[in-house]
């Protein structure tokens, strides 16, 4: 009773202080006007292409101040506040995100009983006053416009100044009171609540949990705020870019039924892409500079030549509410972030190729499919008229992008339940020439009702919805296995069934890494012994996209999210089943049981057993007692001509340095358990140049066949390390710095780590903690190095997962 009374008193005091502070601000600067930035927001979200040079009178005063402030905010603020997964949903990667402000609720909630409202800034552009009705509060001054008001009534300004007053840095570790981590419960005060917040959390200024801005950086942002936070100019496009934009919009908006259906298919696969006009070189380091503009493909109610009227929806296949949808290219106005950036080239060669695949092929489209959920969520029904080979080729030739949609989307963070995949596995693809693994069109026409997906139940699914999909998967696998057994009886499975990239395309193989609650995908086969491997066929690739990218709603309820997670189990096991087909029949059960230790027999039967049993043996020859190891080696040799040079540790290193670093790849268990998932390592040479590496920790599990109690299935003694050149991952957990002369000592010290105390001493010696005064210097160098090595793929890293150890 006493505790409740104290809590009530505290709440009353806080509310009283808030009301008092609001009255003081109103008295000094007038009442807040939620529509203050509406006109600027309307201009910013108008995605029509500007025509001709701007009217000088239309360029807002303070544009230069905005550009200066933007440069600071990108490298100091957006690295934590870049998307919907940022604290308090404050998105500072766009001006209209800053104007929209913050909200206490989290986008990512796997327990909600009903679907939440969509707050995706790009997909659902709104006026600032409309966001206020959704519960967002301003971080800018929405009262009278004066330099004093623009600072004192701005939450952003007050947070910056609080950090200047309490910069921290005296201790190497932050206080345990600091709420860190992607899923931490953050305080989200309004300007009216700021005084109470500052009294309770004096070290809670911005940048939160990182070193303060320099005085010059701080003043740059404050100067912009004092001027009333002027918004940026509209993007002006070079006439040559506008011409290419118009050419592609014409291509995407052909009037024939064939053209409309093909463009719908392309859009539903490209809606997350950062599109640009140019050629894509395969090898990083040989790329042209990043293009001046990236574009997004959006649905509009208006045709090319008219201002874009974007159709906002939860999913790309939701009912647009109009008879004719137009597909338009609009400039991508946000700061580029590694965690969401998926560049995709548009050029004349690609246009001709797609024209031949989709439009010049000999087939007919007699009517367009509708947008009812059951139809639109099933691509095998919606796009049944399109040639299967065209669909598969479209995804396959940019497989890295296709899989990245799962890794980097939807919205910002990737699939919420990443414990559905292993920490380290290889992927290859069925060759389009072979129907045995790709399943021919006749088979798919008969099986498409078994390939329905959870999105047909939309965003408010029941908790047991997944059970119906389990029955469908069983029926589908039975039909699929019958086809494979029939075909391979005459033509046993061998490596020729795998797509070899047409001899040049490095999308032929991928390596996927899971980093606890994030993931990465790279081209090529990294390392030598992955935890598992998949072979992906057309139906599997299509379902991955429509399950986890196009059909997944991050705002959906717990039933939708659970159904999606459990359905992905089927897809993972199907990919593993396809891989097991390359092993001797007597080895398949042994490998399956190793991958699924402790799993039920029913689960294992999806990988190889009652639901997915092969009667035919492989056509490959094995000579050792380790066929699985042999098969991994065979893959490395078979795909050797397509492997990126950037996977080789010795590139640019002396033999001695490379030999010392490669020792890290042999570590199992022991020290590995004390390391974070993703560590960026800077190696300084005697000549003053620096090279960057990524040290990855791969967690081992008995199995990953269950969505809960993952820790109970962990086997830390089988954890392993891998070091790769360059940067892998968008969310670094730790930063290490060493020089070439101390590489051997560095490796020895890391191997010797056997306790949290040892790890702390290791970081004392080699680490740059988030409290280190040098942190921003190294951060800038990381981004500069990434931009130099991979200009097309470069963006900002996200620091929400930086550790505090």
The residue-averaged pLDDT reads: 88
Total DSSP E strands = 12
Q: Which secondary-structure class do the elements indicate?
A: alpha/beta
Which regions have little confidence, pLDDT < 50, spanning 5+ residues? 5-15, 52-59
Quick take:
This protein is of the alpha/beta class and 805 residues long.
Question: How does this model look, in words?
Answer:
The protein is of the alpha/beta class and 805 residues long. The protein has four domains: 225 residues, no CATH class; 135 residues, no CATH class; 257 residues, no CATH class; 142 residues, Nonspecific Lipid-transfer Protein, Chain A, CATH 3.30.1050. It contains 28 helices and twelve strands. It has a four-stranded mixed beta sheet with strand order 7-6-5-8. Strands 11-10-9-12 form a four-stranded mixed beta sheet, with no helix packed on it. A two-stranded parallel sheet has the order 1-4. Helix 7 runs antiparallel to helix 9 and helix 15 packs across helix 20. About 2% of the residues have low confidence.
């Amino acid at each position: 009773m006493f505790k409740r009374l104290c809590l009530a008193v505290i709440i009353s005091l806080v509310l009283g202080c808030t009301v008092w502070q609001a009255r003081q601000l109103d008295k000094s600067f007038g009442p807040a006007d939620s529509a203050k930035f509406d006109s600027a927001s309307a201009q910013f979200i108008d995605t029509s292409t500007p025509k001709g040079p701007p009217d000088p009178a239309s360029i807002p005063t303070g544009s230069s101040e905005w550009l200066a402030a933007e440069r600071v905010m990108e490298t100091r603020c957006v690295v934590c506040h870049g998307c919907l997964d940022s604290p308090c949903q404050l998105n500072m990667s766009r001006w209209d995100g800053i104007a929209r402000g913050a909200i206490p609720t989290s986008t990512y909630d796997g327990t909600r009983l009903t679907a939440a409202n969509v707050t995706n800034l790009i997909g659902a552009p709104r006026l600032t006053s409309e966001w206020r009705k959704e519960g967002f509060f301003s971080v800018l001054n929405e009262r009278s416009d004066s330099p004093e008001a623009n600072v004192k009534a701005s939450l952003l300004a007050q947070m910056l100044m609080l950090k200047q007053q309490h910069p921290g840095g005296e201790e190497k570790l932050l206080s345990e009171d600091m709420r860190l981590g992607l899923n931490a419960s953050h305080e989200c005060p309004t300007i009216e609540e700021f005084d109470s917040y500052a009294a309770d959390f004096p070290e809670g200024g911005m940048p939160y949990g990182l070193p303060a801005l320099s005085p010059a950086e701080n003043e740059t942002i404050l100067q912009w705020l004092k001027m009333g936070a002027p918004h940026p100019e509209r993007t002006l496009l070079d006439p040559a870019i506008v011409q290419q934009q118009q050419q592609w919009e014409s291509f995407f908006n052909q009037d024939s039924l064939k053209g409309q259906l093909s463009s719908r298919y392309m859009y539903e696969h490209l809606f997350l892409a950062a599109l640009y006009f140019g050629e894509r070189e395969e090898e990083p380091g040989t790329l042209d500079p990043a293009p001046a503009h990236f574009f997004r493909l959006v649905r509009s109610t208006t045709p090319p030549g008219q201002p874009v009227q974007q159709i906002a929806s939860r999913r790309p296949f939701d009912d647009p509410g109009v008879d004719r949808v137009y597909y338009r290219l609009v400039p991508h106005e946000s700061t580029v972030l590694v965690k969401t950036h998926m560049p995709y080239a548009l050029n004349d060669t690609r246009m001709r190729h797609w024209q031949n695949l989709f439009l010049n092929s000999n087939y007919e489209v007699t009517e367009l499919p509708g947008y009812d959920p059951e139809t639109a969520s099933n691509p095998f029904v919606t796009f049944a008229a399109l040639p299967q080979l065209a669909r598969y080729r479209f995804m396959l030739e940019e497989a890295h992008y296709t899989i990245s949609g799962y890794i980097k989307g939807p919205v910002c963070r990737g699939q919420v339940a990443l414990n559905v995949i292993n920490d380290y596995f290889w992927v290859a693809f069925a060759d389009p020439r072979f129907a045995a693994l790709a399943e021919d069109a006749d088979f798919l026409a008969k099986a498409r009702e078994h390939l329905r997906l959870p999105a047909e139940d939309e965003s408010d699914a029941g908790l047991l919805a997944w059970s119906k999909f389990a029955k469908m998967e069983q029926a589908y696998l039975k039909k699929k296995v019958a086809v494979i057994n029939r075909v391979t009886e005459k033509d046993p499975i061998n490596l020729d069934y795998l797509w070899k990239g047409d001899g040049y395309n490095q999308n032929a193989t991928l390596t996927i890494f899971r980093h606890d609650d994030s993931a990465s995908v790279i081209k090529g086969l990294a390392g030598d012994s992955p935890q598992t491997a998949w072979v992906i066929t057309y139906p599997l690739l299509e379902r991955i996209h429509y399950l986890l990218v196009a059909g997944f709603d991050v705002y959906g309820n717990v039933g939708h999210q659970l159904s999606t997670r459990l359905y992905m189990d089927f897809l993972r096991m199907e990919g593993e089943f396809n891989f097991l087909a390359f092993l001797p029949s007597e080895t398949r059960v042994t490998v399956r049981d190793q991958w699924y230790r402790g799993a039920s027999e029913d689960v294992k039967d999806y990988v190889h057993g009652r639901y997915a049993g092969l009667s035919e043996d492989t056509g490959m020859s094995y000579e050792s007692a380790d066929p699985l190891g042999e098969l991994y080696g065979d893959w490395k040799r078979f795909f050797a001509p397509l492997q990126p040079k950037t996977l080789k540790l010795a590139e640019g290193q002396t033999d001695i340095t490379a030999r010392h670093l490669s020792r890290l790849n042999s570590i199992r268990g022991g020290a590995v358990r004390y390391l974070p998932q993703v560590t960026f390592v800077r190696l300084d040479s005697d000549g003053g140049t620096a090279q960057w590496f990524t040290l990855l920790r791969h967690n081992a599990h008995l199995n990953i066949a269950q969505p809960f109690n993952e820790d109970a299935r962990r086997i830390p003694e089988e954890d392993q390390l891998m070091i790769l050149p360059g940067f892998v991952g968008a969310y670094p957990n730790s930063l290490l710095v060493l020089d070439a002369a101390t590489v051997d000592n560095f490796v020895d010290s890391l191997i010797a780590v056997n306790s949290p105390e040892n790890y702390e001493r290791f970081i004392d010696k080699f680490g740059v903690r988030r409290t280190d005064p040098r942190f921003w210097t190294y951060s800038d160098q990381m981004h500069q190095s990434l931009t130099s090595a991979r200009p097309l793929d470069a963006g900002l890293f996200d620091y929400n997962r930086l550790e505090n150890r």
